[in-house]
Amino acid sequence: MTEQDAPPAHEGTAPAEFDSASAPDSTVDATDEKPTRRKREKLRGWRAFLRDVALILLAAIVISFLIKTFLIRSFYIPSQSMEETLQINDRIIVNELVPNVMPIERGDIVVFRDPGGWLAPVPEVEQNPVVEFFDWLLSIIGLTAPDSNDHLIKRVIGLPGDEVACCNEFGQMTVNGVPLDEVGLYVTLPDGVTKVSRDDFAVTVPEDSLWVMGDNRYNSKDSRYNQDGPTKGFVPFDHVVGRAILVSWPIDRWTWLDNYPIVFSGVDEGAGTPQDGEPDPGASPTG
């Protein structure tokens, strides 16, 4: 076979010479990639963590808002009208299921909105917007109570239909003719005074209303002293925010708030005027 008869060489059939200088350094690339991948994974981890924290905080705020709106909320005490039971700046927890779900009982301590004219007008004070925002935010979860000055807190003495009067010959208040032994339990009186109200009164509580009084009887602008107002001194049920159930702050005053059912025992039946030969239920002064 001549040179012309020899088959032409096919391009690419012979293995190309490996050029080590021009080949990519895969070992160097893999080494550089590992720190970058770790950084990305770490960044994703932090993002996931922050996202979870944000979701938890959001859920906590929503749950706290719902609890505050429908179950319980916090108030602080701005006045002396409920001493010694409650002191100025005590913080209390209020059960908002009362009265819509749970009934109000005599002796309950209730928080209510001003029925009209009970509170003196308070001039608006311009507040730092940042402080106002955080105050509002904390109020949503019940940690502050910026509207405490817009509410009142008193003890329920009379329910709808009750005849409440004061005072009998022993200085006691009566409900449906039954004298109440309040002194020594929750009523605060000036030294040497045994009459549980400075001024006498006699009222019948109308439907869907309450007659309320402060425990500090000689320093409380309660139902007795608002009888010339639009509700005649009575508190409509729809103004009641809820029942105070405990003192939550300060810690050394933590206590459940009692409604003293023993004081009002027998009131539902009523005593009326004792008949001849029957013992007078008010024959023993409480002192």
Tell me what the structure shows:
With 287 residues, the protein is α+β, with helices and mostly antiparallel strands. The protein has helices at residues 26-70, 129-140, and strands at residues 72-76, 91-95, 109-113, 151-158, 163-166, 173-175, 178-179, 201-204, 209-213, 235-236, 240-249, 255-256. Strands 1, 2, 3, 4, 9, 10, 11 and 12 form an 8-stranded antiparallel β-sheet that branches. It is elongated and about 95 Å long. It starts with 25 loop residues before the first helix and ends in a 31-residue tail after the last strand.
The whole-number mean of residue pLDDT values reads 80
- Helix count equals 2
Percent of residues in helices comes to: 10-25%
Q: Shape from CA axes?
A: elongated
First and last CA, distance: 144 Å
Structural class: alpha+beta
Largest sheet: 8 strands, antiparallel
Tell me the total number of β-strands.
12
SSE order, as H and E? HEEEHEEEEEEEEE
Strand content: 15-25%
Instruction: Point out poorly predicted stretches.
Output: 9-28, 272-287
Q: Report the C-alpha radius of gyration, rounded.
A: 38 Å
